Each structure stands twice: as C-alpha cells, then as structure tokens.
Amino acid sequence: MQPYELSLTEAADAIRTGRLSPVELVDSVLHRLEQVDPRLTAYVTVVADEARRAAREAADDVAAGRLRGPLHGVPMGLKDLIDVAGAPTTASSRVRESHRAREDSTVAARLSAAGAVLVGKTHTHEFAYGLTTPQTRNAWDTGRVAGGSSGGSAVAVAAGAATFALGTDTGGSIRVPAALNGVVGLKPTYGLVPRHGVTSLSWSLDHVGPLTRTVPDQALVLAALAGHDPRDPASLDVPARDYLPGDAEDLTGLRVGVPRTYYFDHVDPEVEAAVRHAIDRLQALGARLVEVEIPLTRYILATQYGLMAPEASAYHERTLRTVPELYQDDVRVLLEAGELMSAGDYLRAQRSRSLMRQEWARLLEEVDMIAAPTVPMTAVKAEESAVTWPDGSVESVADAYVRLSAPANITGVPSLSVPVGQDAAGLPIGMQLLGRPLGERTLLRAGHAYERTRSAHELAPAA
C-alpha cells in the first residue's frame, strides 16, 4: 500500500509512531495528484512547493516531539470557496478571477493550527450553485458526473489526491459527491462549524464539513473544525467534545428510523436494495428498526428553493448587474430567477422551514436517527440532464440529487453519508444517517459500526 492510499486515521498513527514521515506522505499524495488530476480535474490550484515546505516543517516538529495532533503533517484539499490568506478564492468562476483572500477563513486557520498541510484548492460547481461540478470527472468513471457542488473535494479524496478535504453543503453538496464517489461525507449540525471566510451560497442553509475515506477520519477533522466563532452569526457556542466513535460494534438500544415515505420514492432499485441491506446490517449489530413517516414532504423542494434562490441572488446582486456575462449560463439563469421571487414567497418558505423543524424534532424523539439513501441514483453520464422513472415521470438531475439531501439543510440536523455498495455498473452507492442536532457522535458511531463490517479499502476506484 502506498502512503496516498492510507486513511487519515492510518496516516496519523503511522506519523505518530515514526513509521511514516509527513514528507513521505505529502510527496506520495502530490505524485498521485500529478498522475490523476489531468483526467479528473479535481483541483483549481495546486500549491506543491508550499505543501512540501510545510511537510518538512511538520517532520521537524514531529521529530522534536512537537506533534500537534492527528492532523499534523496530513495533506488536505480545500473547496475553493474557503479563504486561505494570500491565495485566490475563485469559486470556480470567472467572476472571481482576480480575487485574493486577505485572511484565513476560520476553518482554514483551525486546520493550519492543527498542522494539516494544504496541497491545493478543489473545484466547485460555480459558486456552489449546482449538483454536478461539470468541470470535474467522477473518480470511478470519467464519463460521469462527480456530483456537486463539492465535486473536486470528493474526487480528490476518492482518487488519493488528498487524505481529506473540506466541502460545503447547502442542499447536499458534501453528501451528494461523497455518495457518487464512494467516500464519507458529513454535513454537521447548522452552526457547529463556523463559516467565516467561506463564500456563501445561501446563508441560512450553508454548512462546512469534511470529506474523508472512513468514518473515524470524520471524527478527527470535525474535532479540529467545531467550535464557536462570533464572526459567524449562526455559530453555536457549545463545549468542545470528542467525536471518535470507538471500536464497539454493538448498537443495542439504538433506534433507527426507516422511512415509509419520501426517501424510498423514485429511487433506483439497486440503490434501494443496497441501502436496505445496509440497514439490515445495522439491525444485525443490535439496532432496533422503527418505521417512520417523514413530515411535510410535499413542501421540501419548494422550501429548499424558496430559501436558497433569493438568498443566493441577494449575495450576487452587484456582480449580476455589472458582469453577468462572466457567469456560466446555468448559474446566471438561477440567479436571475431568484430575483423574481417576492418577499412573500421567501417569508412563506421561512414559515415552512419552521414547521418542518418542529415536526422533525418530534420525529427524532421517536428514534435516534433515520437511515435512508443519500441520493436516488448513482452518478449519471455527464451529458444527461434528466432521469425518467418507471412510472413515466421525468425529473431533472439537479432536482433528483437534491431531493433526498435537502431536508437536513432545511432543518439543520446533521447528516452522514457512508458508502454501502456498488450498482451493476460498479458505481458507488451511499446511505445517509440523519440525527438530532449536535448528534454527530451517534451518527459516527453507527456509521463506523457499519463500516467495520466491510473492508476499509473495499470501495476505492481503480488506479
């Protein structure tokens, strides 16, 4: 096994015990990046010289007994919405070609303080306003979409071009590409991870979170990211905590909600079979399955777009007036459409969100978490814009990918996507676990218990 193939947990242990140098790890990841990125296009920019310099400094620190923690010397990618002082934050858009960040975002500063080594900025669907990241190719099949909007981060991790990465999630933008590329993605509780210095799509729906190879890796990154920052008005002031899920596989007493409605409607049969099989594994580990009804389902997509569209258009108001030609057509149309929404429409979406939060709080008193597909189908071919379901109904690819992930953004509850198999074409399938606010450790515990029933490297694309 090459160093770039190691999970974060494995790499951290090897560095801590002296079996691996940060220089070896970073060199391996950079070499892998050079091999795969010309065909995958996961990165906007690569900072190889800076990464090697930081790796040498980390190696010196480790040798001198100054190990900062499990992220010290570990290479990462950051979605190019996340500010790093002195570096461009392009949002994968011509609108931002001349932009350079004046200071680190909160998450970049925290990861830097933990000793993580930045290897580059990863592609996003332009300004995170999309579910495919068209410039990036799927790590398993370059003729298929990477998922979005954190497609570059997911592909980099899946392909070994980063040991971990950060993405953002406004309607599924961490979990969708995680599912489509066979990696683990976490959308934390709203406000748990500060967003200061992160380009916004929709302020009331935006989250920042990790993409990793394994569930324990998630816990290590989340511990470094979480914590109050007064510069983010939504930031939660909660005590620091340990998110490590432990090694126990016994889930006795855990109540897992299995939706009767919504989450298994219009879902590819192979996706449904893989997710239900994974849910059965949770039951075999001791969890108790409880059938549940998902509340207010007819309002989910209307509420998602009713919040996101006007907030996104407000953020882009000036540049949409002055340089509209610099936006990609799909994003410009969405931004222009958002300006047509009335204040009444936005207020109705806010009211709908409040009602959903109330009903989901009641639902999550009955169960500890909900298990469901992350997305209704695997990665579509790059040229496909719609999917036709067996009943003859047609759905856009964007609507299909956001449909099952949007409830967690609207309600703010945490959601973890874990790989649970492949379809007949060999493409990854993801299951999401949704829990109570600040219930990340419970999700990680269940996700890790499931993960331990499979090989940690079972889901990895061919070199």
Automatic annotation (TrEMBL):
GO terms for molecular function: asparaginyl-tRNA synthase (glutamine-hydrolyzing) activity; glutaminyl-tRNA synthase (glutamine-hydrolyzing) activity. It comes from the Bacteria. The keyword DNA-binding does not apply. Keywords: Ligase. Residues 24-444 form the Amidase domain. InterPro entries: Amidase (IPR000120), Amidase_CS (IPR020556), Amidase_dom (IPR023631), AS_sf (IPR036928). Pfam families: Amidase (PF01425). Its EC number is 6.3.5.6, 6.3.5.7. PANTHER family: AMIDASE AMID-RELATED, TRANSAMIDASE. This is Aspartyl-tRNA(Asn)/glutamyl-tRNA(Gln) amidotransferase subunit A. It comes from Streptomyces demainii.
